[in-house]
Amino acid sequence: MAGYNPLRQSIVEEAKRHILTVSDASEMQVAGKRRGADKLRQIFSEACEIPPAWTSQNLAALETPGMWLAKSGRGGTSDSQAAIHWCGIFATFVLRRVGLGVKWRAGEGIVSGQGSTQYFARKNSWVKKDGFDRNGFLPGDVCVIPKANHHFIVIESLEGSDTLRCIAGNGNKQQIEWQNHGRGSIVTHYSLVWDPFASRH
Protein backbone atom coordinates (compact mmCIF):
# COMPACT_ATOMS: atom_id res chain seq x y z
CA MET A 1 0.00 0.00 0.00
CA ALA A 2 1.40 3.39 -0.95
CA GLY A 3 2.40 5.37 2.09
CA TYR A 4 1.86 2.42 4.43
CA ASN A 5 3.81 2.69 7.67
CA PRO A 6 4.64 -0.78 9.06
CA LEU A 7 5.10 0.74 12.50
CA ARG A 8 1.32 1.01 12.74
CA GLN A 9 0.92 -2.76 12.69
CA SER A 10 3.61 -3.10 15.37
CA ILE A 11 1.63 -0.77 17.64
CA VAL A 12 -1.58 -2.72 17.00
CA GLU A 13 0.03 -6.08 17.76
CA GLU A 14 1.75 -4.76 20.88
CA ALA A 15 -1.53 -3.36 22.24
CA LYS A 16 -3.26 -6.70 21.68
CA ARG A 17 -0.59 -8.48 23.73
CA HIS A 18 -1.73 -6.68 26.88
CA ILE A 19 -5.48 -7.36 26.74
CA LEU A 20 -6.74 -8.33 30.24
CA THR A 21 -3.24 -8.47 31.71
CA VAL A 22 -4.58 -5.92 34.22
CA SER A 23 -8.10 -6.36 35.63
CA ASP A 24 -10.17 -5.85 38.78
CA ALA A 25 -12.91 -8.25 37.65
CA SER A 26 -13.67 -10.70 40.44
CA GLU A 27 -13.04 -13.73 38.22
CA MET A 28 -9.63 -12.34 37.24
CA GLN A 29 -8.34 -11.45 40.72
CA VAL A 30 -5.47 -13.35 42.30
CA ALA A 31 -6.09 -14.15 45.98
CA GLY A 32 -8.39 -11.12 46.21
CA LYS A 33 -5.84 -8.78 44.65
CA ARG A 34 -5.87 -6.99 41.29
CA ARG A 35 -4.62 -9.08 38.44
CA GLY A 36 -1.51 -7.52 36.93
CA ALA A 37 -0.51 -5.20 39.77
CA ASP A 38 3.14 -5.71 38.83
CA LYS A 39 2.30 -5.00 35.18
CA LEU A 40 0.54 -1.78 36.18
CA ARG A 41 3.61 -0.72 38.15
CA GLN A 42 5.72 -1.42 35.05
CA ILE A 43 3.37 0.67 32.90
CA PHE A 44 3.66 3.67 35.22
CA SER A 45 7.43 3.27 35.67
CA GLU A 46 8.26 2.99 31.98
CA ALA A 47 5.78 5.48 30.54
CA CYS A 48 5.64 8.39 33.00
CA GLU A 49 8.09 11.26 32.68
CA ILE A 50 7.95 11.45 36.47
CA PRO A 51 6.86 8.03 37.79
CA PRO A 52 5.07 7.68 41.14
CA ALA A 53 7.15 7.00 44.23
CA TRP A 54 6.74 3.33 45.00
CA THR A 55 5.94 3.65 48.69
CA SER A 56 4.23 0.83 50.55
CA GLN A 57 0.96 2.82 50.35
CA ASN A 58 1.18 3.20 46.59
CA LEU A 59 2.12 -0.43 46.06
CA ALA A 60 -0.83 -1.51 48.19
CA ALA A 61 -3.12 0.68 46.07
CA LEU A 62 -1.92 -1.04 42.90
CA GLU A 63 -2.91 -4.40 44.36
CA THR A 64 -6.34 -3.35 45.62
CA PRO A 65 -9.34 -3.83 43.31
CA GLY A 66 -11.37 -0.65 42.92
CA MET A 67 -8.48 1.64 43.81
CA TRP A 68 -6.51 4.09 41.71
CA LEU A 69 -3.29 5.81 42.66
CA ALA A 70 -4.18 9.17 44.18
CA LYS A 71 -3.07 12.40 42.51
CA SER A 72 -1.71 13.44 45.91
CA GLY A 73 0.90 10.70 45.60
CA ARG A 74 -0.10 9.27 48.95
CA GLY A 75 -1.65 5.85 48.49
CA GLY A 76 -4.87 4.99 46.73
CA THR A 77 -8.34 6.39 46.25
CA SER A 78 -11.72 5.14 45.02
CA ASP A 79 -12.70 8.71 44.11
CA SER A 80 -12.23 9.05 40.35
CA GLN A 81 -11.93 12.84 40.68
CA ALA A 82 -8.86 12.43 42.91
CA ALA A 83 -7.32 9.59 40.92
CA ILE A 84 -4.57 9.18 38.36
CA HIS A 85 -6.33 7.71 35.35
CA TRP A 86 -3.86 5.61 33.43
CA CYS A 87 -5.45 5.19 29.98
CA GLY A 88 -3.02 7.64 28.37
CA ILE A 89 -0.15 6.18 30.38
CA PHE A 90 -0.95 2.75 28.99
CA ALA A 91 -1.07 4.09 25.42
CA THR A 92 2.33 5.70 25.98
CA PHE A 93 3.68 2.43 27.37
CA VAL A 94 2.63 0.58 24.21
CA LEU A 95 4.26 3.20 22.01
CA ARG A 96 7.49 2.92 23.96
CA ARG A 97 7.46 -0.87 23.65
CA VAL A 98 7.67 -0.59 19.87
CA GLY A 99 10.59 1.82 20.08
CA LEU A 100 9.06 5.31 20.11
CA GLY A 101 10.88 7.73 22.40
CA VAL A 102 7.77 9.17 24.02
CA LYS A 103 6.76 9.82 27.62
CA TRP A 104 3.57 10.66 29.48
CA ARG A 105 3.70 14.15 30.97
CA ALA A 106 1.09 14.83 33.65
CA GLY A 107 -1.24 17.65 32.64
CA GLU A 108 -0.07 17.60 29.02
CA GLY A 109 -0.24 14.10 27.57
CA ILE A 110 2.05 12.18 25.23
CA VAL A 111 5.28 14.06 24.47
CA SER A 112 8.53 13.25 22.69
CA GLY A 113 11.36 12.35 25.02
CA GLN A 114 14.92 13.53 24.66
CA GLY A 115 15.83 14.68 21.18
CA SER A 116 13.83 16.52 18.57
CA THR A 117 12.11 13.59 16.81
CA GLN A 118 8.41 14.24 16.26
CA TYR A 119 6.58 10.94 16.45
CA PHE A 120 3.01 12.27 16.44
CA ALA A 121 1.13 15.31 15.24
CA ARG A 122 -1.32 16.25 17.97
CA LYS A 123 -4.53 17.65 16.51
CA ASN A 124 -7.35 19.15 18.57
CA SER A 125 -10.87 19.47 17.20
CA TRP A 126 -11.25 23.02 18.56
CA VAL A 127 -8.07 24.35 16.90
CA LYS A 128 -8.83 25.12 13.26
CA LYS A 129 -5.21 25.26 12.11
CA ASP A 130 -4.56 21.73 13.39
CA GLY A 131 -6.46 20.27 10.44
CA PHE A 132 -8.43 17.86 12.64
CA ASP A 133 -10.08 15.26 10.40
CA ARG A 134 -12.57 12.68 11.72
CA ASN A 135 -11.82 10.49 8.71
CA GLY A 136 -8.09 10.58 9.44
CA PHE A 137 -7.94 8.14 12.37
CA LEU A 138 -5.71 5.17 11.46
CA PRO A 139 -4.57 2.01 13.27
CA GLY A 140 -1.76 2.84 15.68
CA ASP A 141 -2.98 6.38 16.33
CA VAL A 142 -4.03 7.47 19.83
CA CYS A 143 -7.35 9.29 20.25
CA VAL A 144 -9.06 11.03 23.15
CA ILE A 145 -12.68 11.60 24.11
CA PRO A 146 -13.72 14.27 26.64
CA LYS A 147 -15.32 11.90 29.16
CA ALA A 148 -12.61 11.44 31.82
CA ASN A 149 -10.10 12.58 29.16
CA HIS A 150 -10.10 8.96 28.04
CA HIS A 151 -7.27 7.83 25.73
CA PHE A 152 -7.20 4.72 23.55
CA ILE A 153 -5.25 3.17 20.68
CA VAL A 154 -7.06 2.77 17.36
CA ILE A 155 -6.91 -0.85 16.17
CA GLU A 156 -9.43 -0.91 13.33
CA SER A 157 -10.68 2.09 11.35
CA LEU A 158 -12.89 0.93 8.49
CA GLU A 159 -13.70 3.39 5.73
CA GLY A 160 -17.36 4.34 5.82
CA SER A 161 -17.83 3.19 9.42
CA ASP A 162 -18.39 5.62 12.27
CA THR A 163 -17.18 3.08 14.83
CA LEU A 164 -13.52 2.59 15.69
CA ARG A 165 -12.32 -0.64 17.28
CA CYS A 166 -9.85 0.30 20.01
CA ILE A 167 -7.78 -0.95 22.94
CA ALA A 168 -7.55 1.04 26.17
CA GLY A 169 -6.16 0.80 29.65
CA ASN A 170 -8.08 1.91 32.75
CA GLY A 171 -11.29 0.61 31.20
CA ASN A 172 -14.22 -1.10 32.85
CA LYS A 173 -13.01 -2.57 36.17
CA GLN A 174 -9.64 -0.96 35.44
CA GLN A 175 -9.00 -3.46 32.68
CA ILE A 176 -6.88 -3.29 29.57
CA GLU A 177 -9.68 -4.07 27.16
CA TRP A 178 -11.33 -3.79 23.77
CA GLN A 179 -13.58 -0.77 23.31
CA ASN A 180 -15.64 0.81 20.54
CA HIS A 181 -15.72 4.57 20.03
CA GLY A 182 -17.54 6.76 17.52
CA ARG A 183 -15.55 9.13 15.36
CA GLY A 184 -17.82 11.99 16.41
CA SER A 185 -16.87 11.62 20.09
CA ILE A 186 -13.14 12.19 19.54
CA VAL A 187 -11.67 15.60 20.37
CA THR A 188 -7.90 14.98 20.23
CA HIS A 189 -5.94 12.90 17.73
CA TYR A 190 -2.30 11.86 18.06
CA SER A 191 -1.58 11.06 14.40
CA LEU A 192 1.52 8.94 13.80
CA VAL A 193 3.88 10.84 11.49
CA TRP A 194 7.22 9.11 12.11
CA ASP A 195 8.20 6.31 9.74
CA PRO A 196 11.38 4.57 10.91
CA PHE A 197 12.00 3.08 7.47
CA ALA A 198 11.58 6.36 5.61
CA SER A 199 13.89 8.05 8.15
CA ARG A 200 16.77 5.80 7.10
CA HIS A 201 16.96 7.29 3.62
Architecture overview:
With 201 residues, this protein is of the alpha+beta class. The chain has one domain. 21% of the residues lie in helices and 23% in strands. The chain has four helices and ten strands, in the order αααββαββββββββ. The strands form three sheets. The chain has a six-stranded antiparallel beta sheet, with helices on one face. A two-stranded antiparallel ribbon has the order 1-2. Helix 2 packs across helix 4. The longest helix is centred in the N-terminal third of the chain and has 12 residues. The radius of gyration is 17 Å and the shape is globular. The two termini are 19 Å apart.
**Beta-strand content:** 15-25%
Q: Low-confidence spans: pLDDT under 50, at least 5 residues?
A: none
Order of helices and strands: HHHEEHEEEEEEEE
Termini Cα gap? 19 Å
For the biggest β-sheet, the strand order reads: 5-10-6-7-8-9
* Total of helices: 4
Number of strands: 10
Give the % helix. Answer: 10-25%
Would you tell me the structural class of the helices and strands?
Answer: alpha+beta
Main beta sheet = 6 strands, antiparallel
Average residue pLDDT: 93
Report the radius of gyration as a whole number of Å. 17 Å
By oligomeric state, this entry counts as: single chain
Dominant shape: globular
The overall number of domains is 1
Defining traits:
single chain; 201 residues; alpha+beta; six-stranded antiparallel sheet; 23% strand; globular
Secondary structure: elements and pairs:
Layout: H1 6-17, H2 37-47, H3 56-63, E1 68-69, E2 76-77, H4 87-97, E3 102-105, E4 109-112, E5 120-124, E6 142-145, E7 150-157, E8 163-168, E9 177-182, E10 188-192
Antiparallel strand pairs: 1-2, 3-4, 5-10, 6-7, 6-10, 7-8, 8-9
